[in-house]
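Re: Re: ligand-bound prediction request (bumping)

Still looking for help on this. To restate: I need the protein modeled with 6-O-phosphono-beta-D-tagatofuranose bound, output as structure tokens. Inputs repeated here so nobody has to scroll up.
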Amino acid sequence: MDLTALNNEFGGEGIRFVSGPGNLAVAEMTNEHGHAEIALHGAHVMSFAPVGAAPVLWMSRQSWFAPGKPIRGGIPVCWPWFGAHPNDPALPGHGFARISEWQVVAAGTTRTGGSFLELRLTEEDVPEAYRGGQPFELLLRVEAAATLRVALRIKNTGMDKLEFSAALHSYFSVGEIGNIKIAGFEGKCYLDTLDNSRGVQQGTLTFDAETDLIFTDCGSVCHIEDPDLERRISVARSGSRCAVVWNPWIEKSRRMPDFGDDEYHSMVCVEAANALDDARSLAPGGVHLLETVIGIA
Ligand code: TA6
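Reply:
Sorry for the wait, this slipped through. Here it is.
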């Protein structure tokens, strides 16, 4: 659907569809509480900020904005697998949902004056190379106000079980990675994916090297304490028993073409995930909801 048709059908108070980076179709949501931008490509939340606040989500200045390519930053939707495909490394990392073109199905204002957008993906919308799996329906609902709510609804529309892992892979903007602390994982078990070791988090989480931890059964809220930006970002999850915390640090940043060499200083990922033992299986007709709610305290 072109921008004129999108604006005619779904545009309105606080919501308009514009041509964004790479000429991607982007929904701009603006209301008295906050602002957010969502690309239809990948149903990708690209930015969010409460009114009067600095951007909460991080975006690489080297991100791709192109068909078939994932956007580096914001909130990638990782589905139907998290990380590398379990059997075929040639398949795209973190699944095909974030490199597919989603359809707008609803948009408007919420009862409290926020804005919402709903996007849908089914197997017909998936790039040809990645079709052939179980039938499914994904609905992503984004609500932007003073907080940002992102809810991924996964439905098994087929006749066999639908198995998947997933994540809402949120990138947060921070003043300096070496100065932040993340509270909320104290005493929680994790898998360190860098060496496949297991451990228990001692105290708040701090950063002085590449960090890629999957907390396997942790609480539903954590806080990013940022002394440089003088703020505390809350990250709440539901429909997820595991959270992923990632910063690539120097060497991995240099290996990623869509990630500036020095950009690791200004970001951290805290992801609502269904990964490892929290991967899910839906019976025919079954539904799962994976959600994250982000705010500034
Ligand atoms: O969520 C952490 C992680 O799985 C890291 O291992 C790293 O690969 C990151 O995701 C980014 O993955 P991407 O495929 O977007 O480069």
